[in-house]
Amino acid sequence: MSKEKNDLSQRFLFEKTDIRGQIVSLEKSFQQVLLQQNLPRVLLPILGEFIAAVSLLSETLKFEGTLTLQVRGDGQVPLVVAEATNEGNVRGILKIHHDLLSGDGMPADDLFDASHLKSLVGQGVLTLTIDPAKGERYQGIVPLDGNTLADCLSHYFQQSEQLPTKLWLFADEHHAAGLMLQSLPPQLIKDEEQRQELWSTAVQLAATVRQEELFELEHDTLLYRLFHELQCRIFPARDIQFKCSCTRARSENAIASLGREEAFTLLKEEGKIAIDCQFCGKHYAFKSADLQRLFGDEGKLH
Ligand SMILES: [Zn+2]
Q1: Residues 198-255: pLDDT tens digits?
Q2: Where do the domains of the chain lie, and which CATH numbers do they carry?
Q3: Between the CA of residue 41 and those of 1, 102, 266, what are the distances in Å?
Q4: Distance from the CA of 298 to the center of ligand 1, in angstroms?
Q5: Alpha-carbon distance 107 to 197, whole Å?
Q6: How far is the CA of 31 from the centre of ligand 1 (A)?
């Protein structure tokens, strides 16, 4: 029952069934995500749940790529983004509506009702995007029809033609953690009634998990406690770490997409174009010579 199991993701399955699962517990990587964001305490668990969710879901990526969960809305929290790569690199941002940031200091905790995702986000859209390094991008729209992110995602997987998948997400100011179960296509058990029965047993057992168990227990201790009657087999753990994928080249692309005229106007106004990565705080600056090079030099292109 000791700790020291932070920032690990671990796959498991139940012997002689077509159900697999994933468990993740994060501390350091989540703290590093938070270091870049200046947020009221009450909102930290919201970002934590997003980070835990992408960490779990990215385990289903069977190729090099990135999985992104993003919600955009018109409410107090107009944007939350979390990303995880197949290598276990996570990053995320949460934005507060600028009207709430007009005073000095941080908006007060009691301005926000963090128990309902939708009351924070307002009218909005939750998207799940899978971006393979090679090949086509997949995007799914997840209806905001649950109180929590886990509810929204579980409904989504239930209703889409994806594999039935259920998530449990927990986060506080320090930890982010989660549990996921997924029902695979029939292989070992073909009888539909028996499959259903096993799935509902597994879901009921998983639903008994408590936040402090996920934050405090070793994965194998917890999985045994939850699922011992289902013969749980646990695979080796994988590290999850905070790592940003921003590059100077991507910032250049952003400037290029402004177009030559607008980029040079901006440069004239500011003296340089500065782009700060919102995920990791890295600072990229572009001066006149950089822009000339970027736009193919002396401006004789057109
Ligand atoms: Zn970055």
Answers
A1: 999 999 999 999 999 999 999 999 999 999 999 999 999 999 999 999 999 999 998 9
A2: 8-242 (3.55.30.10), 248-299 (3.90.1280.10)
A3: 28, 18, 36
A4: 30
A5: 48
A6: 15
